[in-house]
Each structure stands twice: as C-alpha cells, then as structure tokens.
Amino acid sequence: MTNIKDLAKMAGVSVSTVSRVLNNYPFVKEEKRMAVLKAIKDSNYQKNINAVHLSKGKTQMIGVVLPFSDYPYFALLLKGISKQAYKYNYKLLLFQTDYMESREIEALKMLKQKQIDALIICSRTCNWSTIEEHLLFGPIVLCENVNKKLVSTTFVNHYKIFYDALEYLYHKGHQRIGYCIGRKSGASSVKRNSAYRDFINQYNLPDNHDYIFDDCLEIDDGEKVVQYIKKMDTPPTALLVTNDQAAAGILTACQKAKISIPDELAIIGFNNEPISKIMNITTIEIPLEKIGNNLFLQALSGEISNQEIAVNLIERGTV
Amino acid sequence: MTNIKDLAKMAGVSVSTVSRVLNNYPFVKEEKRMAVLKAIKDSNYQKNINAVHLSKGKTQMIGVVLPFSDYPYFALLLKGISKQAYKYNYKLLLFQTDYMESREIEALKMLKQKQIDALIICSRTCNWSTIEEHLLFGPIVLCENVNKKLVSTTFVNHYKIFYDALEYLYHKGHQRIGYCIGRKSGASSVKRNSAYRDFINQYNLPDNHDYIFDDCLEIDDGEKVVQYIKKMDTPPTALLVTNDQAAAGILTACQKAKISIPDELAIIGFNNEPISKIMNITTIEIPLEKIGNNLFLQALSGEISNQEIAVNLIERGTV
C-alpha cells in the first residue's frame, strides 16, 4: 500500500509537503501541489485517506446538530459557525434533527466512531446523561447553560432577556403584552414561555393565550399576526417578536392596516439584524453570529470553557 | 461481531424493526426503538455502523460544494437543499471552497471513497475533465448549464438574464448603467460581466469601470455604494444589484442622501427576497430555493436530468 513517503518520492517533494497538500494547508507552491496530486492519482492513494485520518485521529469535519437550518435564529448561529469553519478549512456535517432524539443520537454516535472530530449542539431534545455518555469520545459544545464543568458552552440567558424585555414594556405603560415566536417546542422557547408566565403572575396581568403567536419565522408571517390582532376586542398593546424578520413583517402589515406604531402597538424585535436598522425597529441584540464563532472555536480547541454572552436592548422607534 | 440478527434477538424485535431503527425511519414504536437502542449499546454495535453503510452502499450523507455559505446567493441555494435534506433525513456535508480547487477535489475524492452518497456542486473552479473522472463514483449534480448529457444540472441562464435586464433599463431611457455584485470571481459573475460588456458594446455606451461595484453582499454594503456615487461627476442613472439585500441598503442610503428613486437612480434587485416586497423594489426573481430543492432531488434520485429554471422580472417602484 502506498504511504506518504512513497508519495513524496514519486512527486519529488518532501514528506512534509505531501502532508501539507493532504491537509489542504495553504502556502504550498502550485507546482509542488500538482506533483503531489498527480502522485496521489497515479498511486491510487485515495484508499489510504482514511488511514491518514486515523493516524492523525482527525477528519477535519465538525458536526452541527440543529433542529432546522432555515429558522433565522439557527441560520445566524450557523452563519457564525460556517465563517470559522471556512477560515480553518473544516467541513461541517449538518444534522437537522427536528428535535428527534434518534437524529441527535446519530450525531453523537458519529463522534464516538471518530467520523467527526467534534460536535456542536445548537439545541437538543436528548437529556444530559446521553450527552455525558459521549463526552469521552471528543469535544461536545453546547449553546446553552447546563451548569456542568465537563462541557464547553456559549449561551445567553433566554429567561432573563425575555423577562427584562417584558418589564421594560410594562414600565413603558403596557399591560396587555403578547409575544411572537418561531416554534413553541425549542429549548429557548420553553424558557421564554416560562419567563412570560412568571412575568404575568408577578404583575397580575391578564393571562390571554391569544396574545401568544407561533410560526412567526419570516417577514411574510407578519401579515397573519396583524390580521388576527385586528379582529380582537382587546388586542395586545405591545409585542415581543423573537426575530427581526417577523418584526419587520408586522411593522409593514400595521402600516398597511393603519395601525399606528408605537402608539397603538409597540414592537420589540430580536437579533438586531440589518433590517431592524433600516426599518428603525427597537430590538434586542443577541449576537448570534458571534456565538456561532465561539461555538466553533470551542469545538476546535477542545479545551473546556463556559461563556455567557451579553445582549443589548437597542432603542429605536417602535416602542 | 454483533450483526443485525443478533440485535433483533437481543431486543426481541424483528430484523426489519432493527433496520428501521438503524436507518432512522419513522413509525417505529418508541418501546421497540428503545429496546433496539439498548441492544446496540449493550453489544457495542457501533463498530458495525460502517459495515451497514457498506452493505447498503449508503451513508445518508450528501456533499455540497459551495464557495462560501454566507453569500446570499449561496445561502438561498443551501436553504433549498437543506429543506429537502431535512425532509428525506439526509445529512449535508458542507465544503466551503473559496474557489480553491484542492477543496473541490477533496469533495470529489469523498464521493470516490463512498464517504458521501452524492455531490452537489453549486459553483466551481475545477474544469470539466476533473468532474468527468468522478462521474462513475456516484451522482454529481451541477448548478450550471454544461451542455453535457452525463451529469444532472439545474440552472438559470445568467448571461441572458443580465443582458435582458440591461436592455430593459436601456429602453426605459437609461444610458449610464452600472451594476453591483458580490464578488468578481464566481462563475455567474463572469457570465454577468460578459453580458455587461456585450451590452455596452452593442449599444455603444460609455465603458466606465467606476460603474461596477463589488463586495455588495448585504444591506450594510449599500451605504458605501451611495457614498461613492455621490462623489461622481457623471454618476450612473441605473444600477443592477445582484441581491435584494444590497438593493435595500442602496435604497435606504439614497433616501438618507436625498437621492430620488427612481428619478435620479433606478434600481433592479435580484432574487425577489421578502425585503424587496416590503420596500417595493423592482427585482428579478431567481427562484434559488426552488433550484436548491431540485439539486437535492436530482442528487437523491441519481437519474440524469437537465433543467433550466425560468426567472421573472417583478416590476415595482424602483425603475
């Protein structure tokens, strides 16, 4: 079987040059790179690539578990992860789980089998003990605060952010406050709902289930929220909207429906996406891209660290 | 070594149930699934997962080659691909190549080694012969018209779309027409540039390099285009902007700078993203998500087909 020394001989280059080419490092002269690639081709070397991975214990592949890649929250996280993966020339293996535990377990299994070098879990269904069983097999990085010393995490405090935003609206004079969310089932959604419940209990506010809207993912989803609100006898006077795309859609639909913003309806978006700046939407800046960057770097380094990322309320024209 | 029959015995279920669990098919009773998972755990079965892949010749993994995943054009293609991958429970392996041939070759090599079931190439640097060498090893799907019968493709005619849009602006009375693009180096950028050159030669229009702006990727990039235009003695009177995010940014910056749209500057965006609807931007609808869907389904089926996707000019308020 051809080995790396044979390749170096065939290509007339050093072993370290072959290694650089195999690992796609930059700074190899094109001429030498071509010579190595020719040697690889001539010698049918591809059969050994797995052996190279084994000897290094590296696949240059990092797994990313996320329920759906097209929900803005996860899309922005993934963007941050991808930017770093690109920079370090790592491939990303995407597991879109729809919160099915079997798909999460499949990802963990691939870590166990060394088919990926590390695993980033953006959101999950499986319980901590399932994660714990796999910690020995490679770095696992979580995007949540699990209060464990065994695993790297980068997270925001979804409960506190939601509660603080609700109190902010309350102190601005609002009592009928609702919120719009992507899906009810995610881990952050559960925390947000619990903040909302605690808030209305604390301030003794009406508990109106009609004030909670789900499936608010994109600009186009704003229209249906506004149609619904228009039909209510006592509509909410303020909405927390968990992504700026949907907030922009609600704002536009209100403008069409002659609902005055913020006088008749106050809106707080999330993420400080560029569209919120253009449309002058008050928003809570969760630096998801930065969190994504961090998750990747934690997965890459393998050293355990835990980081809470701060958020900012950016006051603009919709409250 | 434990095999699938042993697992079935240990779990007290049928072989086909074990197979269903291993392949993550739905419709397995949770109780049976747990029994199989326990048997897998108890028997240390993970060593055989690769053997399962081998026996089926399937990894449930499809590779996606794209230069950068965060450029809107590719992000939307990837969104379409991801939606189908999610639906069919396939994992996606992302190769972000920055148009480096070595990274494309790495992807092709993984197809050759059966580490992925199929490969979708959204844009590439390597030449056709490199692709051709790998056609035997599994389905390769391209997002361009290569006029070959050997490979599946889904594509739009970037040259014609750009030329037609330029002529449309010309017939609206514009002679000083520029364009904004993400990066100059991509395959579609080259075709667009060649359409632009042919157009200005055909109509004998001024060949002003200052009318071509690159790095126009996001909303925030609009500002610098407008700053630049403001300083010109003879600014362009119309711009083709190859994504709606940047078009929205230019529109907003013009509103701030008191440049009247469309009287002083006409704008045509691309992709018909929701933001173009909200901001009433004339745009060319390239159904990138649909193209992404199609690319995945072609990769999955493995049958060769070639499809040109039609585009629409959506006339709104910016021309």
TrEMBL record, chains A, B:
GO molecular function list: DNA-binding transcription factor activity; transcription cis-regulatory region binding
Alphabetized Pfam families for the sequence: LacI, Peripla_BP_1
Keyword presence, Coiled coil: no
The keyword DNA-binding is annotated on this UniProt entry: yes
Entry-linked PROSITE patterns: HTH_LACI_1, HTH_LACI_2
Keyword vocabulary terms for this entry: DNA-binding, Transcription, Transcription regulation
Start and end residues of each HTH lacI-type domain: 2-56
Origin: domain of life: Bacteria
Residue stretches spanning the membrane: none
Protein name: LacI family transcriptional regulator
